């Protein structure tokens, strides 16, 4: 049997399973980064949790608290549902915190809608390593379906119509304007359905988010339940910011005084003689419709598969197609779609220009905004970067790496399509007198740590080993939440998994960020990126460009201050109120990364461990090398992501 028919059979057998698993469900509400169970962060969380039961109130008020110093500070939110006595609320919070400490020991983020003795969600405990107050959080989701299904001989079409109407009424009740903390974002309804005497439904959001965010959260809960467990006799879906539950019995104290609302009038389906069609007729109609849809999808796939076999360029689907690139499939965009998305590369959509081409903002037919990198026609070196970036980013997926959505190479056009990262590049913040004030120490540390995690993925955790070779502030993009994404892989170098170093005659990158062994002898290793990272850390702490320190560079300047016992003199004056010892610790890590001897530099995984531990003794650094600080590309055509996103922050 060929691959095509086998794939068709696989599609036919698993089609509905795919649709039923569109969202990953977390069993315990654990998320965020992995941490050591004995870390200072976990100790702070345990200490903070021990105080929560005495602080929470059984009247629906939200309690917000934090404990510890960055980066081990813990933030917590606690909320008790309405209708519970103080003692029951305290017991619920204690059980919820114990569950988090047991099941989410090694994760930074967690939430738990705690249960009372009757398995009712009566309180919320939520913790994170960043403040979550006022922020909508949808992931992860927990789902608890009723074990029994509804009698299949009941009129499910009518039931769904009445159920959907009840959902809409409950959402309105939960999100209607009400300034009372007790009643805000809380709705509990009891309804009479045509074939059920009572149906109970509860919706609740944390009172710190907006009404629109509450509706969005509750809608996501309802959709998840219907996509996975529709037909059960009840169920619950909860997320960090909201809770949804329904059942055929009063499952919470809140329903004691809730009046029953009547069911909507029952519409009767009639045949030509005026008789009711009945349950069997409805089932037959549903089966016929589903069969038709299923066969149509199957026939459509067969046609698509046939076209793919006839074409070397892949499957064309609405202006985009999948093409095989170095053994992996990648989205290939039709040039006409690119021209439409960018308004024919109009100057109004231009974001910036680099040595090998221009970048324009575009909007795809589905409404997604993208950054379109158009390489200069006939640029041989640009062609090399194009192939390199497509080949590498096709196989790399990490939250701290910029995402390549696809490419286009029709005729002389070579185009890369990226996710649009709205907050420009790091250099437009850290080196700007006004914008730098937005980079608090907490934000700077999160950016530094995110870059480090991206490098750990490139060096150790991905299926490849990749050396970036041009790591600098202008190649770090910031998303809407100021999370960093490493960008511009045009000069990156792919290593074998067991290869530790290599040599090259082609020195790519920017002086001042290049390791001395690479700049002078062409020696490449993961320690080359570590050196560049160290320079960036010192820039983040000082708020100054490396090339400002003419003749010696920032690394040498910082080393001299370290030897003098005055490392604090390089700290940005804007950080004067922030934890001095913690910042000096980061200076020490930065100096360790820029040491002249590559073997003395730490790995990026060691750097991550040092970031999160106050008990580990960090080695003392040796002197860095004198490399000069001219901030110019060793290859005059190297395309800087700084130029690409120059105008983003002003739009």
UniProtKB/TrEMBL annotation:
The Gnk2-homologous domain, residue ranges: 23-132, 141-251
CDD domains named among the record's database cross-references: Gnk2-like, STKc_IRAK
GO aspect biological process, one term: response to abscisic acid
Biased composition (Low complexity): 627-642
Signal sequence range: 1-27
GO terms, molecular function: ATP binding; protein serine/threonine kinase activity
Subcellular localization, as worded in the UniProt entry: Membrane
Domain Protein kinase: start-end pairs: 345-616
Membrane topology, record value: Single-pass membrane protein
Keywords for the protein's UniProt record, in alphabetical order: ATP-binding, Glycoprotein, Kinase, Membrane, Nucleotide-binding, Phosphoprotein, Receptor, Repeat, Serine/threonine-protein kinase, Signal, Transferase, Transmembrane, Transmembrane helix
UniProt binding sites for ATP: 373
Transmembrane region(s): 280-302
InterPro entries given in the database record: GNK2, GNK2_sf, Kinase-like_dom_sf, Prot_kinase_dom, Protein_kinase_ATP_BS, Ser-Thr/Tyr_kinase_cat_dom, Ser/Thr_kinase_AS
Pfam families: PK_Tyr_Ser-Thr, Stress-antifung
Annotated region described as Disordered, given as residue ranges: 627-651
SMART domains: S_TKc
Keyword set includes Transmembrane: yes
Main location: membrane
One term under GO cellular component: plasma membrane
PANTHER family: CYSTEINE-RICH RECEPTOR-LIKE PROTEIN KINASE 40-RELATED, RECEPTOR-LIKE SERINE/THREONINE-PROTEIN KINASE SD1-8
Name of the protein: Cysteine-rich receptor-like protein kinase 39
């Amino acid at each position: 049997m060929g691959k095509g028919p086998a794939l068709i059979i696989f599609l036919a057998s698993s089609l509905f399973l795919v649709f039923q698993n569109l969202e990953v469900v977390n069993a315990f509400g654990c998320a965020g980064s992995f941490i050591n169970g004995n870390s200072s962060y976990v100790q702070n969380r345990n200490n903070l949790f021990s105080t929560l039961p005495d602080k929470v109130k059984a009247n629906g008020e939200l309690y917000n608290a934090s404990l510890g110093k960055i980066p081990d500070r813990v933030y917590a939110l606690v909320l008790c549902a309405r209708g519970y006595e103080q003692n029951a609320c305290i017991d619920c919070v204690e059980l919820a915190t114990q569950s988090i400490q047991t099941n989410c020991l090694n994760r930074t983020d967690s939430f738990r809608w705690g249960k009372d003795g009757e398995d009712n969600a009566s309180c919320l405990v939520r913790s994170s390593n960043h403040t979550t107050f006022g922020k909508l959080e949808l992931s992860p989701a927990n789902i608890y379906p009723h074990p029994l299904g509804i009698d299949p001989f009941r009129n499910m079409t009518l039931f769904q119509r009445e159920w959907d109407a009840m959902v809409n009424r409950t959402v309105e009740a939960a999100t209607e304007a009400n300034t009372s903390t007790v009643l805000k974002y809380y709705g509990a309804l009891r309804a009479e359905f045509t074939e059920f005497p009572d149906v109970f439904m509860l919706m609740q959001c944390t009172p710190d988010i907006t009404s629109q965010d509450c509706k969005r959260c509750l809608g996501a809960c309802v959709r998840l339940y219907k996509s996975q467990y529709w037909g059960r006799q009840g169920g619950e879906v909860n997320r960090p910011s909201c809770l949804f539950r329904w059942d055929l019995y009063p499952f919470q104290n809140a329903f004691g005084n809730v009046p029953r609302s009547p069911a909507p009038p029952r519409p009767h389906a009639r045949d030509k003689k005026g008789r009711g069609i009945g349950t069997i007729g409805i089932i037959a109609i549903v089966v016929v419709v589903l069969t038709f849809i299923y066969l149509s999808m199957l026939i459509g796939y067969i046609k698509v598969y046939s076209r793919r076999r006839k074409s070397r360029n892949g499957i064309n689907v609405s202006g985009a197609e999948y093409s095989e690139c170095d053994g992996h499939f990648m989205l290939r965009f039709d040039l006409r779609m690119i021209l439409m998305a960018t308004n024919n590369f109009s100057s109004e959509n231009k974001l910036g220009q680099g040595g090998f081409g221009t970048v324009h903002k575009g909007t795809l037919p589905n409404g997604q905004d993208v950054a379109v990198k158009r390489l200069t026609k006939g640029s041989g070196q640009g062609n090399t970067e194009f192939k390199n970036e497509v080949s590498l980013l096709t196989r790399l997926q990490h939250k701290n790496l910029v995402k390549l959505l696809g490419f286009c190479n029709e005729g002389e056009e070579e185009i890369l399509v990226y996710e649009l990262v709205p907050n420009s590049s790091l250099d437009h913040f850290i080196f700007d007198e006004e914008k730098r004030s937005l980079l608090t120490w907490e934000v700077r540390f999160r950016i530094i740590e995110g870059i480090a995690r991206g490098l750990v993925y490139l060096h150790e955790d991905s299926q490849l080993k990749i050396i970036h070779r041009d790591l600098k502030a202008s190649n770090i993009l910031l998303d809407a939440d100021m999370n960093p994404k490493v960008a511009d892989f045009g000069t990156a170098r792919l290593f074998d998994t067991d290869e530790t170093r290599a040599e090259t005659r082609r020195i790519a990158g920017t002086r001042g960020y290049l390791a001395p062994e690479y700049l002078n002898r062409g020696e490449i290793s993961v320690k080359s990126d570590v050196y560049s990272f160290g320079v960036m850390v010192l820039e983040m702490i000082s708020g100054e460009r490396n090339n400002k320190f003419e003749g010696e560079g920032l690394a040498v300047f910082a080393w001299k201050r370290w030897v003098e016992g005055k490392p604090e003199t390089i700290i940005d004056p804007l950080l004067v109120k922030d934890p001095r010892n913690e910042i000096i610790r980061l200076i020490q890590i930065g100096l360790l990364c820029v040491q002249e001897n590559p073997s003395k530099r730490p790995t990026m995984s060691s750097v991550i461990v040092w970031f999160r531990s106050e008990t580990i003794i960090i080695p003392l650094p040796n002197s860095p090398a004198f490399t000069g600080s001219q901030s110019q590309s060793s290859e005059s055509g190297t395309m800087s992501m700084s130029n690409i996103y120059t105008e983003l922050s002003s739009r």
